[in-house]
Write a structure and sequence with these properties.
Blueprint: E1 3-8, H1 15-25, E2 28-33, H2 51-56, E3 59-60, H3 73-89, E4 93-98, H4 101-109, H5 119-131, H6 133-143, H7 145-150, H8 156-169, H9 173-179, E5 188-195, H10 198-214, H11 217-226, H12 241-248, H13 254-277, E6 282-286, H14 293-304
Parallel strand pairs: 1-4, 1-5, 2-3, 2-4, 5-6
Length: 311
Amino acid sequence: MNDLLVVVGPTASGKTELAAALAERLRGEVVSADAFAVYRGLDIGTAKPDAATRSRVPHHLIDVADPREGYSAGMFVRDADTAIAEIRDRGRLPVVAGGTHFYVRALLYGLFPEPPKDPRLRQLLEAEWAADPAAVRARLAAFDPDSVLRIASADRQRTLRALEVCILSGRPMTALWREHPVGAPRHGFLMLGLRPRREELHARIGQRVEGMFAAGLLREVEGLLADGLSPQAHALKAIGYRESCQVLAGVLTEPDAVERAKTATRQLAKRQMTWLRGEKGVEWLPGAGSELLPAASSRVEARLGTGTGAG
């Protein structure tokens, strides 16, 4: 059986919870597709599965990168392919839990051919961002308004790369994505999408953000900074971490940081749903988390059959 089970949905919809429950029921192992869970030391704010869950169900591509270093979609595809092959060799089902949908798409269809990076141009763009991030975002909006909607305003790395691609290619990055020929997938897959009601999702987001700060997110960030991680590191641009850095710098109070993180997470969830609605092959499940286990298991068993080893 060479299929993947892919579980996607907006942040805080319970993807990690459902993926682990499915893997446990169907003799599978989870491959995390989260651009921040790859970093060691970023635990509370990335909502990594707890130790008990990871002891019951093997998880891959969590804590595989140093937060001082970058981690790219290309590196993810390489590492995920290796993990998937090893899971299959054990006769088990790979379950991809997709928090970063760009990573999921790259795994399933490959990366589109971007123009090569231009160090001099990137240096100029970095200087522009340092001087006025809003002006850089406005410049990107003039080239590629869809990318501005898709990329968070504080996401310096992705904003600069999108603008760099626009300048070098003379085309919007989103147009290049749309025109990238999508042939046969690199892996056979069944993709289940979680779709909680808006009110339910917002409540879950609020509970998650409040829980992160109550669990000691500020102390976690303080420890990372004390260990020498720069507050400008890409790893600390994740929601919750960037607000925590501002609290520790005296720019925000903790209550303000909590509210800003809630707002940013709701905005992220909206962008994620916009992305997923444009994806082909998503089989939607109304609801959130492990409450969807019976319906999801039925879909998997009907589509992938007994080769999952379910029992």
